[in-house]
Amino acid sequence: QLVESGGGLVQPGGSLRLSCVASGSTFNRYVMSWYRQAPGKEREWVAGIARDGGVRNYADSVKGRFTISRDDAKNTVYLQMDSLKLEDTAVYYCKALDWGLVYWGQGTQVTVSS
Q1: pLDDT tens, residue by residue, 13-32
Q2: Would you say residue 49 has pLDDT above 90?
Q3: What is the widest separation between alpha-carbon atoms in the chain?
Q4: Nearest to 68 by CA among 40, 30, 103, 39
Q5: Which are the contacts of 81, defined by CB distance < 8 A and separation ≥ 6?
Q6: What phi and psi, each to the nearest 5 degrees, are found at residue 18?
Q7: DSSP E strand stretches across 11-107
Q8: Are the CB atoms for 20 and 108 separated by under 8 Å?
Q9: What number of other Cβ atoms are within 10 A of residue 32's Cβ?
Q10: Are 32 and 96 in contact (CB under 8 A)?
Q11: N or C: which end of the chain has fewer CB within 10 A?
């Protein structure tokens, strides 16, 4: 089970940090990702982090503004979002990939508005 938190309302240029906590004892096996879905649009990949945290990748739209990280001791993946823009408004989901098995969280709403 994955549970996201940290969403909310923020002004353009502001910051938020999303968290996704996984239950169980196999978190270090998971490749973790963040996705988002804006109203009327398809879900899109935002960022991903390898099992050991050594490789991180970002969508071009967030590169340089968002940072993904993980803390295996806390079974948690984070998404630090800085310099937020209006177009970052979406429901953000975390995804865990466990050697072919896929798990999704329920999502957390991020609204960027002045």
Answers
A1: 999 999 999 998 789 899 99
A2: yes
A3: 42
A4: 30
A5: 15, 16, 17, 18, 62, 65, 66, 88, 110
A6: -90, 145
A7: 16-22, 31-37, 44-49, 56-58, 66-71, 76-81, 90-98, 101-104
A8: no
A9: 26
A10: yes
A11: C
